[in-house]
Amino acid sequence: MSFIKSAAILLWRIWFYILMIIPIIIMLPVLIIFTSSEKFYPQYFICARIWAKVILFGMGFRIKMEADEVPEKQKSYMLVANHTSMLDIMLMLSIMKQPFVFIGKKELGRIPVFGFFYRRTCILVDRKNQKSRLEAFEEAQRRLKQENSICIFPEGGVPNDQSIILDQFKDGAFRLAIEHQIPIVPISFHDNKKRFSYRFLTGCPGKLRVKIHNFICTEGLEATERKNLRDKTFRIIHQELKNPTVH
User: Which parts of the chain span the membrane according to its record (predicted)?
Assistant: First the structure.
């Protein structure tokens, strides 16, 4: 890689973190108000979507989305997608109009400025800690009872092996979906790893393809069927990633 290209990617990457902070600073007074109580979460969610769209547009990304089904207002869903990049958060916020709550890794709460609001609005989990996982599960149950949707990246993290298309899914999202009898919404993110991976001197602006698949009904399912539900969701996303239908 040439020095000029490396320098350009470095500046572009730095610009990403600047873009993360600028909208937060501009909206700071309303964000503090909207994160002061859960009753303001729908208003906070609107701000979060603006923040996500500013970042994606400012980084030169454009979204190409196809949806087999569209979530209905005032209904709860379990949103599940493959996890490959920090863009996954922004992209999910951009494509979903109905408020949802992220279950995300605790480490992101340490990012300056962003982390403050992330800790106040998301369900944090330390995936290496059994107690933390249990507490996150219980908190997700509470938020579902408030008729929120939940978003989980069921791989549990980004695979270290770059050759892995989709890592094995954990059971938590599917157990929650069955317990609360809410539909699974499988979502495939095609280009996030290529456009903005966790390897620092990589990436470029361009298209971000998204496929929202047909929802998977959980009505009548029992907890013992969560693995079948998990495997079915995995197959849907994996097949789309191998053979894209979005171009």
Answer: 14-34
Contacts of 133 (CB under 8 A, 6+ apart): 125, 126, 127, 172
Let me know: does 59 contact 239? Beta carbons within 8 Å: no
List pLDDT tens digits, range 169-193. Answer: 999 999 999 999 999 999 999 999 9
| Cβ neighbours around 75 below 10 Å, total | 11
- Angle 155-87-160 from CA coordinates, rounded to 5°: 40
Would you tell me the crossing angle of helices 114-121 and 41-58 to the nearest 10 degrees?
Answer: 140
* pTM check: above 0.90: yes
Please enumerate in sequence order all residues whose Cβ is within 8 A of that of 122, keeping only pairs 6 or more positions apart, or say none. Answer: 101, 102, 103, 104
Which residue's structure tokens are 């040439």? 2
Number of domains, the chain: 1
Flag whether 168 is in a domain. Answer: yes
Element at 206 (helix H, strand E): strand 206-212
- The CATH number covering residue 230 comes to 3.40.1130.10
* Residue 154 near residue 169 (C-beta atoms within 8 A): yes
